[in-house]
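FYI - complex with 5-amino-5-deoxy-1-O-phosphono-D-mannitol, inputs then prediction.
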Amino acid sequence: MCGIVGAIRAHHNVVDFLTDGLKRLEYRGYDSSGIAVQTGNKITRVRRVGRVQLMENAAREKGVHGHIGIGHTRWATHGGVTEPNAHPHISGGLIAVVHNGIIENFEEERARLQSLGYTFESQTDTEVIAHSVKHEYERNGHNLFAAVEAACARFHGAYAIGVIADDNHKEMVVARMGCPLLVAFGNEETFIASDVSAVIAFTRNIACLDDGDIALLNANGIEKLLDKNGQAAERKVKVSELSLASLELGPYSHFMQKEIHEQPRAIADTAEVFLDGGFEPENFGTTAREVFAGIDSIKILACGTSYYSALTGKYWLESIAKIPTDVEIASEYRYRDVIANPKQLVITISQSGETLDTMEALKYAQSLGQTHSLSICNVLESALPRESELVLYTRAGAEIGVASTKAFTTQLVVLFGLAVTLGKMRGHVGEEQARAYTEELRQLPGSIQHVMNLEPQIAAWAQKFAEKSNALFLGRGIHYPVALEGALKLKEITYIHAEAYPAGELKHGPLALVDENMPVVVIAPHDKLLDKVKANMQEVSARGGELFVFADLDSNFTESEGVHVIRTPRHVGDLSPILHTIPVQLLSYHAALARGTDGDKPRNLAKSVTVE
Ligand code: M6R
C-alpha cells in the first residue's frame, strides 16, 4: 500500500534516492507515483500514473535537482487513479505533502478549508493535509514543525506523512499515527521511508517512529521529536540486517518464483530456534514461561494468508498442546462485542507487522484487558511486535511478491513449534515425542526440496488451469486451510475465480457448480481422513468434474479418466500441510505465467495493507 520516501542530502541530488527508494517500495502495490523537490526557491513536482520508471524518466527529462524532497507511490483509496490524485499534494506552491493512510474526517476538514478560501484539485483525503498545514504555516510565521503539529491535531484516522516547504531549504517534518514510517541516518543525509528496503542501499542506521510522533529533520538527523503526549523524546537507532540481495531478483523471473524456491532455506532458518534451543518458552521472550503457564486458551487474529496459517495452527494447538484455540479475521474481531478473557493469550500473525486491521484488533483486545499477547511476524521492529508482550520472528527474509508464500510456511513452522512448546509445558508432549517432532522439523526442508522437483508436472497442469474461469479447492481437517490458501493464491494472481471447501461440505451446496468445466484441486495426503476425501472425490467424478489431486506416495492413488495425480515424495506426518502448500503455490505461479498476469504485482492489491 502507499509508499513514502523523503530525504535531506547536504551534498547529493535527492532525486537519485527518491526514485531508487520508490522502486524498492513498488512491491507494496501502487498505481501512480510522484516526487516533490525543493529546487531553489520553489517546489518542483513530477507525477505519473503507472510505473515509477515513467515518473523517473519525466523527472530526468525535466532535470529536477535539489537537496530536499519527498516521494510517494499511491494505492488509490479516495479518488481514481489519475495524475491530479497522485501525491505529493501541494498547497499554494508553499507546502508539499506525501501521505500513507486515511484521514477519516477529511470531508469536514475539506468543508472547513473551502470556507477559508482553499480550492481542491484532487479527490483525495491527503489534499486536506497540504492545505491545513499551509494554513497553519502562514498563521504562525512559517514554523513548519508547529504547523504540522497543529494540523495533525485536527485529523482523525491513520497517517504517516512527510512535509516540506518551498522556503525551508534545510528541514522536513514527519508525523506518524497508525502507519509505518522510519528515519534513516547517513553521512550528512537523512532519509525517511515506509520500510527499510527503500533506504538500505544508502544506510543501515534506522529509527522507527512511534504512533503520535512528530519529528523535525535536517541533514544531520532528528532535530526535535515530540511523542504522542507532546513530550520531547528520542528513538533508538538500530542497524538493519536486511540484505540487499534479498531485494534483488537474482536468476529468477519473478519474486514469487524466487520466494517459493527460497522456502527450504527460510523454513530451516525459522526452525533453527527450536532445533538448536529446543521447544522452550524462552524462544518467545524472556517472560514467556510465566505467561504461558497462566493461560487457559488462545485467540489468533490475522488477515488473508496469515489467517489461513492461524487456521492451520489451531489444529496443532488443540491436538498437540490440547489448548482451546479460536481463530478470527482481525477486521471482524475489532468491531465485535467480545467477551474478554484475561487468561487468554492473544496471538497476532502478520508477515509485514503493519497490517492495520491486525494492529487495531490487537489494540482492541488489549483495551478489553487481554494483556497477554504474542506476535508472529516477519519484519523486524514492525508495529505488531513492538506492541506485543512476546514475539517470535519468522526468518523468511524479505518477501516482495504480493502473494505471500514463504511467509506462510514459516508462520506454520512457528505455530507448530509453539504447539509443541505448550504441549511440553502442559504435560502432553513427553521427551520422546518432542524428539520425534524435532526430527520431523529437521527433515522438512529436504522434503520440500523434493516437492520443488515436481515443478514441471505442476506447470503442465497450470496450462490447463490457465484456460479456466473457475476452480474449486478441497481439503479436509488440517489440509482444509491449505485448500483455502491454494484458492487465494490462484484468484489473487491469475484472476481465476477460485473457492475452497472442506471436502465434506461439497454436497451441501458447491457440488451444484461441478461440471466438465470445473477443475477441482484436492489436497489428499495419507492421513486419517483420506478415505473420506476419496469418497468426496467420487462425488465430483460422478458429475463429470476433472480432479487434480495432490497426494503423497502412501495415499495410493491411480490416475484415470478425469483424475490427474501428482504425488509428493512421502508422508511427512504432522507437517504435511507445510509440504502440501508448495504444490498449490507453484500451480498458481505457473497459471499466472500462462495467463500473462503479473504474479508479483496483481491488480488492485498491495503488499502491506496499512488502511482499513
Ligand atoms: O502482512 P500480513 O501478513 O498481515 O498481510 C495479511 C494479508 O494482507 C496477506 O496475507 C494477503 O492476503 C496476501 N496478499 C495473500 O497472498
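The mean pLDDT is 93. The pocket of 5-amino-5-deoxy-1-O-phosphono-D-mannitol is lined by residues 303-306, 350-352, 355, 358, 402-404, 488, 492, 609 (CB under 6 Å).
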